[in-house]
Every structure is written in C-alpha cells, then in structure tokens.
Amino acid sequence: MATREEILDIHTMCACSHTRMAARAVTRFYDDALRPSGLKGTQFVLLAAIEADEAGSITDLADRIEIERTTLVRNLQLLRKEGLVAPEKGANGRRKPTLTEKGRGALDAALPLWRIAQGEIENRLGYGSWQVTRRRLGELRKAVG
After folding, report:
1. Sign, CA torsion 21/22/25/31
2. Could you give the CA distance from residue 63 to residue 95 in angstroms, rounded to a whole number?
3. Three-state SS annotation for the chain
4. CA distance 85 to 41
5. What are phi and psi of 42, to 5 degrees?
6. Could you tell me the keywords of this UniProt record (predicted)?
7. CA–centroid distance for 123 within its chain
8. How far is CA 80 from the centre of its chain?
9. Tens of pLDDT along 6-25?
10. Residue 121 CA to its chain's centroid (Å)
11. In degrees, to the nearest 5, what angle opens at C-alpha 53 toward C-alphas 79 and 145?
C-alpha cells in the first residue's frame, strides 16, 4: 500500500498533473483574451495552422499540430458548421481543410487580440524565460512521444 508521502508526491511531482494544470491555465488565459473575437484559443490556433497551408491533408494537419486525427475531425466539423472552414481537394487528391472568407475574417479579427495575449505571456515570464520554456516544452513532447 502506498504511503501518504508517496500519494502527496503524485500531486507535487507528477509531470502529467503539472502539465495539465499549466495547459488549462494557459487555455483559459487565451480563451479570455480572444473572447471578443468569438474564437477560443484552440480554434484560433487551428485556423492559423490551416491558413499556414503546410498540410496536404487532414492527417498531415493532425501530425503537424500533434493532435489525434479523430479529435481534429471533430474540431473541423464544428468550424465547418460555423462556416469558418471548408474541405478542399489537396494536391495529392486527399481532402484538406481550408479557411472560408468568414474564417479568414475571424482569424484576422482575433490576431490583434492574440498578439496582446502573447505579449502579456512573454512580459509576465520575461522573453528569455518564455523562449526557454517553449524549448523545454518541445523537449518534453519529444521525450514522451
């Protein structure tokens, strides 16, 4: 049977717990900042990834943003219902999402709000500390991926 100290260590030391708490806090921060645009942080990031047009298919996009394909498909369906994305045939013949005119407008409207939020994160942490944090988060993803 686990000791009380071992159980308490789960809360204080668990990488899963700490990264999830941080992710929820950051998500709330960006959701609040982007609220005037009508987009959530996750939607904004997804629209930006689509607009970057580096993915040739839904699977490529899922790999690029490191999200389960089924989760991505559900998110794309919601954005499609809102008229923000539409499917298009990619160069390889597979379907890929593209932004509609309304989607580009939503992204453009949210971009200044995102810049303010991103600047606030960088100011609160310090730009150098944010760069280290970003790099370390990438290292963490690679270590467990």
Report:
1. negative
2. 15
3. CCCHHHHHHHHHHCHHHHHHHHHHHHHHHHHHHHHHHCCCHHHHHHHHHHHHCCCCCHHHHHHHCCCCHHHHHHHHHHHHHCCCEEEEECCCCCEEEEECHHHHHHHHHHHHHHHHHHHHHHHHHCHHHHHHHHHHHHHHHHHHC
4. 16
5. -65, -35
6. DNA-binding, Transcription, Transcription regulation
7. 20
8. 18
9. 898 888 999 999 999 999 99
10. 15
11. 85
Give the amino acid at 135.
R
Residue 89 vs residues 72, 83, 84, 103, 104: alpha-carbon distances, Å = 17, 18, 17, 18, 19
Residue 41 identity: G
Report pLDDT digits (tens) over 62-120. 998 999 999 999 999 999 999 999 998 877 777 889 999 999 999 999 999 999 999 99
Alpha-carbon span 70 to 91, nearest angstrom: 22
> Hey, what are 31's tokens?
């959701």
Side chain identity at residue 18, one-letter code: H
Residue indicated by tokens 């597979």: 94
